[in-house]
Amino acid sequence: MLPEGTIIPTDKRYNIPLATVIERDDLRHEMILSDELEAHFQRIEKEYVARERLAHFGLKPRKKVLFHGAPGCGKSMGAERIAWNIGLPFLKVRFEAIISSYLGESATNLKALFESVRTFPCVLLLDEFDFIAKTRASGQDVGEMHRVVNVLLNLLEDYDAPGLLIATTNLEDTIDRALFRRFDDIIEIPKPGKQEILRILQTTLSSINVSKSVNWNTLSDKMQGFSAALIVKIANDAAKSAVIQGNKIVDKEHLNNALAENTKYNK
Ligand SMILES: Nc1ncnc2c1ncn2[C@@H]1O[C@H](COP(=O)(O)OP(=O)(O)OP(=O)(O)O)[C@@H](O)[C@H]1O
Ligand SMILES: [Mg+2]
């Protein structure tokens, strides 16, 4: 729930909200990360929690964070987990509502959105924010999109709201280098390593019994290079076929079949 009186600005022409609120109960937050990455996430959370103590020493918490890395490895989920852990409302920016074909309106929309969070503590997610950079290349008025990128650069630079801003991209190469400099922290979220693969499989299968014949070691070796999303899908597919067959136990066959079937979507 948002604090009473909070208004999400809308696009003036069609009255579409410029951001979507995701309720706390719907935030994905049970992430499996390497120790190093977990510590990196926790540092952001701890700095936010300690913001008043930091302020006594003239210090500011990390507020503007960029996640980059391969698809399906936890960039969007990472933003949700941070909001969950620090207990802030979660707002996801709707670029399709922000970007307007009418001259000047995209910039106006962006400014209105940033203005609305100036006094409203929340996690503002600019998910796949390369959308703006991409739009510049794909037929929109070039001059206009250039202005929109510049407006975004300025808004990022000046952002000093009471919450956090998290941006994600998996196309770091096509992003304006100037955008990178605006962030307090840039975190690469890589594909899961062997330990993480194992933990993702076991966590996903934690509500069903798994046969003792399953060799976790061999299984996770076969999934090296897979995205976290694909590993979750394989585990769920195996569990579902066990249940559909009337088994209460997931065995090696279920897992191997799900693995073979999903390997074509790798990685
Ligand atoms: N670190 C993780 N631990 C556990 N599950 C994960 C993790 N990362 C991703 N997943 C699973 O993969 C799904 C997709 O993750 P997410 O949406 O965060 O990917 P993404 O990096 O934002 O991908 P994209 O670039 O395609 O937007 C999650 O809903 C979750 O099931
Ligand atoms: Mg994502």
Summary tags:
267 residues; Helicase, Ruva Protein, domain 3; 2 domains; two-stranded parallel sheet; 8 strands; elongated; binds adenosine-5'-triphosphate; binds magnesium ion
Describe the structure in your own words.
It is a single chain. This protein is an alpha/beta fold. The protein folds into 2 domains: 170 residues, Rossmann fold (3-Layer(aba) Sandwich); 68 residues, Helicase, Ruva Protein, domain 3 (Orthogonal Bundle). It has 12 helices and 8 strands. Strands 1-3-4-5-2-6 form a 6-stranded mixed beta sheet. Helix 6 packs antiparallel against helix 7 and helix 9 runs parallel beside helix 11. The radius of gyration is 21 Å and the shape is elongated. The mean pLDDT is 91. The protein binds adenosine-5'-triphosphate (ATP) and magnesium ion. Magnesium ion binds next to helix 3.
Describe the secondary structure blueprint for this structure.
Layout: E1 19-22, H1 35-49, H2 51-56, E2 64-68, H3 75-86, E3 90-93, H4 95-98, H5 105-116, E4 123-126, H6 130-137, H7 142-158, E5 164-169, H8 177-180, E6 185-188, H9 194-204, E7 209-210, H10 216-222, H11 228-244, E8 249-250, H12 252-263
Parallel strand pairs: 2-5, 2-6, 3-4, 4-5, 7-8
Antiparallel strand pairs: 1-3
Helix pairs in contact: 1-3, 5-7, 6-7, 9-10, 9-11, 11-12
This protein binds adenosine-5'-triphosphate and magnesium ion.
